[in-house]
Every structure is written in C-alpha cells, then in structure tokens.
Write a structure and sequence with these properties.
Strand content: 15-25%
Bound molecules: adenosine-5'-triphosphate
Number of strands: 24
Radius of gyration: 28 Å
Largest sheet: 7 strands, mixed
GO biological process, one term: recombinational repair
GO molecular function, one term: 3'-5' DNA helicase activity
Organism: Saccharopolyspora flava
Distance between the termini: 70 Å
Protein name: Part of AAA domain-containing protein
Keywords: ATP-binding, Helicase, Hydrolase, Nucleotide-binding
Structural class: alpha/beta
Length: about 625
C-alpha cells in the first residue's frame, strides 16, 4: 500500500516536472512545486502565480488549497518584510471573501502564510506573527500537522473558487474543468450569502461564519458601531474575528476590553485558539485594569483598596436612618452611588435631581434624592478621610488624564464586550480611549442580559451610531429546546440603543437538546446524580444567584468527590472540572450542561429587582448548549 502510494506520488512529481519544464523558475522552486503537486491525490490543489518567479513583492508565489485550509506560499531566497507577507495574506484573503462552503462563509482563519526558503538558507526560521518560515526540506510539516477543516469536496470547491476569482493564479496538475464532480455532489461555492440551517452540520466558529457575521467583520464603519443580538448569536465570535481582521491589516495595537473583569481573559483564551499568531497585537484587559495601568504609568495612584472602600460605605450605611426606611437594601444604595451618581459622573445635586433613573424604581418618595445625595456626600468624605478611592474614581481619573494628555499612539480599534454593563463614565472612557474615527469603537452587547444597573444613552457620551448597528439572529449555542425554554423568561430590555432582538426572535442553528425540569425534595442528591450521569467529556456548570449559594454548591460537589472549581476565577481555558459560580460570573462562558438549583433566598420584592433577576436568569439558562437542568424543589 505504502509502496503504491509512494509510486503514485513519484508519478505525480514527474508529471509536474514535465508540466513546469518550460517555466523559468529557479531549480529549488521547481523542487518545491513538484513536492506540492505530488500531494494532489491527498486533496491538495496548488495554484501558481503566473508571474512567478517574478511575482510582485506583495503577492504569494503559490496558493495551496487542501483539507487543512489554505496555504499562502511565498518562495523566497531571503526573509520577506512583514508588510510583504501580510499583504500577500490579505490579497489571498480578499479573493476568498464571500466564499460560502456548505454550512457557512469561510473566515480568514483558514489561511496561513508560509515562507519557503531554499535548503541552504541560514536565516531565521519558525513561526512569527506573520508567517511560518521553513526550508524546502521541511515541506512535510505542512501536510502532516494540523487539523482538517474542510472536506475534500470543500477543498476542491474552494480551489475552483480561487481559480475563478483571478487570472493571476493558475492551477497546476489539476484543472477545474476537467476534474469530475464526485458522487454526492461537490458543494458549490456560492456568491450569494446563505443563512445557516439546522440541517447543516455544526461547524467550527474559527473557520465558518454566517453572512451577517462575516459582513460585520469586514464592514468599514465610519464611526462607532454596535453589535447586538440575543444570547449565543455569536457577538463575541464576530468581535474576535473583527479584531483578527483589523490586526492583519495594520501593525497598530487593538484593545479588547469589558466592564466585567473576567470577560477579556475568557475572550483572550478563545482568540488564542483562533489566531494565536496575532495575540501579541491585541491587548485583552478589563476597563478598570486599563485605567489603573494608565494612571500607574503616569505616576498617579491607582490601586483600589477594596476593603477600605467597603468599610467607608458600611460606616455611612450603619449611621443612616433615612435610606434604610426607604428601601432596606445595602446593595440597592451601593448601586445608586456606584452606578447612578458616580457611575454617571454626577457632581452636583442639581444634576442628580433631574437625572433619569430608568429601571431604578418609581415608587420612591420624591425627596429621596436629597437623602441619597447626602448619603453620597458622606461616603465621599469617608473615602477622603481614609485616603482611598473606589473603582469609579479610577475610571474618572483615567478619563481626566486622557483629556489632559491623550495616548501617544491611538489604538487601531477598541472592542467593548458586554457593553450594556458599562457605566456612563465607563462608556466615556472607552470612547476617549478609542476615539470616534472609522472602525475605532465597536460596542458589543445585549440589553436582555443586562445584569447591573445602568440607564444611560449613547448620546450622553457623545456617541452617535448613525445606523452603524447590526443585530445577529442565529443562535449557535443553545439547542432548540433550550432556546425555547429560556425564551419563556420575561427579561425586559432596558438598553434600547441601536437595533436589538429578544431571545424569542433568535433562530436556533441546532435542533434538539434536553431540558430537565426536576421536581422533588432532595435537590442536592438529584443534582449530583444528574451531574455524575453526564458523559466524561461534557463540560458542566452549576450556576447560582448568590455568592453564598455558589460557595455552598462548591462544597457539596467537592464533598461528593466531583472535581469542581470556582467560575469567578476561571479564565476560559478548557477544563474537565465542573464550574460553580453566580449567574453574573457565568457571562462570557458556555457549557454543554448547565444546572440551576434553587436557593433559599427570598424572592425579589421590587419590580426592578425582579427585572434584574429575570435578566440574570436568562443569561444563566442560555449558557447551556445541550442540557439545561432546572430545579423545582417541593417543600416537605
Ligand atoms: N458562525 C458560527 N458557526 C459556528 N459556531 C458559531 C458561530 N458563531 C458563533 N458560534 C458559536 O456559538 C457560541 C456562541 O457564540 P458567542 O459566545 O460569540 O455568542 P454571544 O452572542 O457573544 O453570546 P452571549 O451574549 O450569550 O455571551 C460559541 O460556541 C461560538 O463558538
């Protein structure tokens, strides 16, 4: 078998020798081409640049399409400039744009740039941000390593697509007209976008996007833009692809940030699985960490002493008699200060008196604002007496610092994920970091998943979308049954900026799924049994409303011998441990199975607490891909 295989490869090599005999290529380049041509029976289709060996500097000499993707090959005696290798990549990527294969549109992640040097090359080899550099004797590496992204039919269809898009590339050793269609039909490469359907197999997000996603990845936005869409519709996926797209078209830095501190690390883990070579060009950091680093870099105090801040608040709270009477919730008044007064940068009672408090409760007496303002002033006094500042102060100071002295070098682009959780000050800071120029700011979010108090409008931060908003619709995460169940949660969207869709309007890409509505007495036993019955490779999470319930379940799981870890500190890397954490910390994550036990907390007693609870519950439910387990304990 092996002998026959090598014999066949030798025949192909010789055939290639004959075909390329009259091309004025240096002999080492011919050897490389012969080697590539010999891989045809393994489903590799080479396309040679018709100008080779006088290929323009910023073009590939060869493009090779196979099941492992598309190789953009530069045959060079010396190391090319990074601009040349990137430009060759972008040239091939533009030819590929719009190629729809089977179940989706191909993303640029199927392309890799390879620089092949003659054997005597002594310069740098190996992987860099822009390409892999090898010598001709190492070509086997290209064929033997890597995962299969495409079927053979798809590879052929893609090779034909490239052939049809340019006269610069010519097939070697294969001919689009002559290779017969294989039985079962070669998928057509369509120019028309095709919406994904449940009938198609589920594909890898790194290589396949839908037309709405790909359109937004490649679109040129003349100013700030927004991506919205219900849970699981691929907003973060799109944002990561866009970061890669922008990174490949320039050498500037990009920033991927979020008001929720754990989101950027999880996004970075995903990006690393998609385009590790570009990771150095993108900063993944929370907005607070970014602000702190800016201040520290400019010699300004920036560390928040959380414990002392809590003490300052508690001191005022313990003295208060009025606010307790209006609403006896420490969290509510903490939010009023953090999210409404300081979070909006309000610095006078007059401004506070008239500010809109959308979603913050209408039943409070009209003079509550003067009490809340006094409370806030006392809190500020406590902070200054203790010589500390809180997270809002860090954002405010960073904003003032940027106004005083802008960044020496602007980011090429800034993506803010979970943008609905920003405070107004946070939004202003993000805008100040990015600037308002073309492609500089992309806000990604979903108002139906808003978990923290908000209530601002983009215009208050000087941002205007002017129609630069897209809403995604196809849910790639939640199987149909789960989506249907989660859509029953009445989660009100208070973040009504740009286009948006409720979860009930999302279209599931994958059918089926399992929703278990457990009724019974012994919730712990039932949950453990269901968890232990999962397949070994099933990622799972137990999600709770409160921190204390999360701690409880972590203990229960560990006591039962289940490998479990805290969700709050999880960075998104693959793990076989069951993750346990709050609904809030579940943002930016997903699991095959999600368990939602019930906890002994009194139900929310105000309309806005109920709203927040519903939005958080919707977020928690939509973390599940295949199985959603919901507890309904019966009292003894
Ligand atoms: N075009 C696609 N093809 C295949 N899988 C996709 C596609 N787009 C997204 N996915 C997958 O769908 C899941 C949800 O994507 P993502 O996390 O980007 O959604 P999201 O809209 O940001 O979700 P949420 O708002 O709930 O956090 C992920 O597993 C992602 O890999």
């Amino acid at each position: 078998m092996t002998g026959t295989f090598h014999h066949r490869q030798e025949l192909l090599r010789r055939e290639a020798e004959v075909q390329l005999r009259d091309r004025p290529l240096p002999s080492w380049q011919k050897r490389v081409l012969h080697r590539f041509a010999a891989e045809r029976d393994n489903g590799w289709y080479p396309l040679l640049n018709q100008f080779a060996p006088h290929t323009p500097r910023q073009r590939p000499d060869l493009v090779l399409v196979g099941r492992m993707g598309v190789l953009v090959v530069l045959l060079r005696e010396t190391e090319p400039d990074w601009e040349d290798s990137r430009a060759a990549f972008v040239w091939a990527a533009e030819l590929l744009a719009g190629a729809s294969i089977g179940s989706g549109m191909l993303s640029e992640s199927v392309l890799r740039t390879v620089v092949v040097h003659p054997i005597e090359h002594t310069g740098r080899k190996g992987r860099s941000a822009d390409h892999l550099a090898i010598t001709e004797d190492e070509l086997d590496r290209l064929f033997k390593r890597g995962e299969r992204i495409l079927t053979s039919d798809e590879a052929l269809a893609l090779a034909k697509h490239l052939d049809s898009r340019t006269f610069d590339l010519t097939p070697i050793m294969w001919n689009s007209q002559r290779i017969p269609r294989q039985r079962g039909g070669v998928p057509e490469v369509l120019q028309e976008p095709v919406a994904p359907s449940a009938r198609r197999p589920f594909r890898d997000w790194r290589y396949f996007l839908d037309d709405a996603q790909l359109g937004a990845v490649r679109r040129s936005y003349s100013g700030p833009a927004q991506i919205s869409g219900p849970a699981g519709t691929g907003k973060t996926t799109l944002a990561l692809h866009r970061l890669a797209y922008l990174a490949r078209r320039g050498d500037g830095k990009l920033l991927c940030t979020s008001p929720l501190p754990w989101i950027p690390a999880r996004a970075a883990a995903r990006f690393g699985r998609m385009a590790p070579e570009l990771a150095g060009q993108i900063e993944f950091t929370s907005l607070h960490a970014w602000a702190r680093d800016l201040l520290a870099g400019r010699g300004r105090a920036a560390e928040v002493d959380e414990r002392e801040v809590r003490r300052a608040f508690d001191a005022v709270w313990s003295r208060d008699v009025v606010l307790h009477g209006l609403r006896n919730s420490r969290e509510y008044w903490r939010d009023e200060i953090d999210r409404v007064i300081k979070g909006r940068g309000i610095s006078s009672f007059d401004a506070y008196r008239t500010v809109s408090r959308k979603g913050r409760g209408g039943q409070l007496p009209s003079d509550f604002r003067s009490h809340a303002w006094r409370f806030y002033c006392e809190y500020e006094r406590e902070l200054s007496e203790r010589g500390v500042f809180d997270h809002n102060d860090v954002l405010k100071r960073a904003l003032a610092e940027l106004e005083r002295r802008p960044l020496p070098r602007q980011y090429t682009g800034v993506v803010v994920d979970e943008a609905q959780e920003l405070t107004l000050i946070g939004l202003r800071l993000a805008h100040a970091i990015s600037g308002a120029g073309p492609d500089q700011l992309l806000l990604v979010g979903d108002g139906q998943q808003q978990a923290l108090a908000g209530g601002w409008r983009l215009a208050e931060a000087g941002i205007s979308l002017h129609g630069r908003g897209e809403a995604l619709r196809h849910d790639y995460r939640n199987r149909a049954m789960l989506l249907e169940r989660a859509s029953q949660v009445e989660a009100i969207n208070r973040f009504d900026e740009g286009p948006s869709l409720p979860l009930s309007a999302a279209l599931p890409v994958r059918g089926g799924g399992q929703v278990v509505e457990w009724h019974g007495r012994d919730q712990e036993r039932a949950l453990l049994c269901a968890l232990l019955a999962l397949d070994d490779d099933s990622s799972a999470a137990v999600l709770t409303e409160t921190e204390s319930a999360a701690e409880h379940w972590l203990r229960v799981l560990r006591d039962a011998g289940v490998a479990a870890r805290e969700l709050a500190s999880w960075d998104g890397r693959d793990t076989t441990d069951t993750l346990v954490g709050t609904y809030l910390h579940a943002k930016g994550s997903e699991f095959r199975s999600v368990f939602l036990p019930v906890e002994p907390t009194p139900p929310p007693d105000t309309a806005e607490d109920r709203e927040t609870h519903q939005r958080r519950r919707l977020t928690a439910m939509t973390r599940a891909q295949d199985l959603l387990w919901l507890a309904h304990p019966t009292t003894p």
